[in-house]
Amino acid sequence: MPEARWQVAWQSPPSASGWVLLHQRQHFLADDHGCLFPLNWVQQQDLRCLAQHGIGLFDGAPVQVWELAEPELLPGCRWLSLREVMLQHDEQLFRLLGHASQIGQWAREHRFCGACGQAMQLLPGERAMACEPCGLRQYPRLAPSMIVLVTRGDELLLARSPRFVSGMYSTLAGFLEPGESAEDCVRREVQEEVGLSVDNIRYLGSQNWPFPHSLMLGFHADYAGGELCLQEDEIEDARWFAIDQLPTLPAPRSIARFLIEHYLAQRLGHTLPRLD
User: Fold this and answer.
1) CATH number at residue 177
2) What pLDDT is attached to residue 2?
3) Is 160 marked as binding a ligand?
4) I need a labelling partner for 227 at 20 to 30 A (CA). Which of 11, 79, 95, 163 fits?
5) Can you tell me the mean pLDDT for 103-130?
6) 213 is in an annotated binding site
7) How would you classify this enzyme at the top EC level (predicted)?
């Protein structure tokens, strides 16, 4: 997908022409040509659709996302996870599908009012679901989380979750608690997960993360004290690694890899990477 072919745009109701993304729980239906299907073709399929939302324009043509009740499989198609897109495809496609996935998940979760249980309706002119009986409104939401690289001179603190592929180590991460700043979250999560204190926390960038409602905020922090003491239910192993003796690292397109490569470039005098 060439640069700048996709743009967010409000459409309500969805257009009667254009493209459709078929979404179900952070997965998209795809064929050999990609994830965008002609609307007139999709309308001919026997699909159980929970919601339809116009989300933007692709090459000037309207795009809508259909949230499917089940992961139905059409001939010649397969389901592609948002994480696969992040790791294997271009940034423009990831932005398009990341936006569509958030809207689709939001539409699935807010068909009924969480206060009174009545059916909700799309509010005209806004990206919001509204309950007429009680007045509750629900907008698409984000759950901010932080990810941080902790360093000590030429050493990087990297850790393993039990969920990681064999041999891979990454940076520390965690979700913000209510009333907590992102910097407070960095300090708390590092203390909880590995027993260390940090200072000189600086923000480096953010990334839409392939997890419902998640926005990952990336930081770099300096070691300030303490000995490694692992949170057993979260951390399988954590170690200090020298810059010339690193383990298997996260995938290149991830923000975790960006934080690591940014630090290595600084220490080695190389060109700083970009988080596009």
Assistant:
1) 3.90.79.10
2) 40
3) no
4) 163
5) 93
6) yes
7) hydrolase
